């Protein structure tokens, strides 16, 4: 549930991330969190779509994971979140525990592409992609495979990093059976529905 205390935690984590990112030029150290409006939107999507099986690619310090987990917890759902950086995963784990949401989230420290390639078919209702955009096109055959029919992929940074997303989104547009729309929300959220 989006309790007052969770909303306070999210607000503080977001502002801490913005301040931290402003102070470092080292990309791998940056939090690079989604925006709060994107967090609320993800919460709405999970609840409205009753998306109980969620895969997040790119955990960072757990800001977006908290939004997804809060929604998943309301519907007895679960989130799997992947990140390659151990220190980020440690930070995310602490945030989830502080929010009392660790019971519905599994964090894996892995290379996302390798994990996705080994995941079973039809395993997820919702995929949230917020990691290495250069990998998405290569991951596309597996992303299609592990998303159930009627499931949704949300791609962050579709506007803020449009050029980096273009190859992947062109590939998606050329694939039959998907309905695609990009929303001017946050950093640009592209929604890909498996029809
Ligand atoms: C934009 S940040 C994620 C932000 C997070 N979704 C949020 O809003 O709070 C991208 C994350 O992807 C991770 N990442 C980059 N390449 C990866 C890969 N190949 N496999 C797994 N994680 C990766 C980075 O370590 C980083 O934490």
UniProtKB/TrEMBL annotation:
GO terms for biological process: methylation. Coiled coil: none annotated. Keywords: Methyltransferase, S-adenosyl-L-methionine, Transferase. SUPFAM superfamilies: S-adenosyl-L-methionine-dependent methyltransferases. InterPro entries: SAM-dependent_MTases_sf, SAM_O-MeTrfase. GO terms for molecular function: O-methyltransferase activity. The keyword Methyltransferase applies. This is Methyltransferase. It comes from Microvirgula aerodenitrificans. The lineage of its organism: Bacteria, Pseudomonadati, Pseudomonadota, Betaproteobacteria, Neisseriales.
């Amino acid at each position: 549930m989006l309790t007052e205390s969770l909303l306070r935690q999210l607000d503080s984590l977001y502002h801490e991330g913005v301040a931290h990112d402003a102070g470092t030029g080292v990309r791998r150290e940056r939090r690079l969190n989604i925006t709060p409006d994107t967090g609320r939107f993800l919460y709405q999507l999970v609840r409205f779509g009753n998306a109980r099986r969620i895969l997040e690619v790119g955990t960072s310090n757990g800001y977006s994971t908290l939004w997804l987990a809060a929604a998943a917890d309301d519907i007895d759902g679960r989130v799997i979140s992947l990140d390659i950086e151990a220190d980020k995963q440690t930070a995310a784990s602490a945030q989830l525990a502080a929010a009392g949401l660790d019971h519905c989230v599994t964090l894996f420290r892995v290379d996302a592409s390798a994990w996705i390639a080994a995941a079973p078919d039809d395993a997820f209702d919702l995929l949230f992609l917020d990691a290495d955009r250069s990998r998405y096109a290569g991951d596309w055959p597996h992303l299609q495979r592990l998303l159930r029919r009627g499931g949704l992929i949300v791609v962050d940074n579709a506007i803020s990093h449009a050029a980096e997303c273009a190859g992947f989104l062109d590939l998606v547009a050329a694939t039959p059976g998907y309905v695609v729309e990009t929303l001017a929300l946050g950093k640009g959220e592209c929604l890909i529905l498996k029809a």
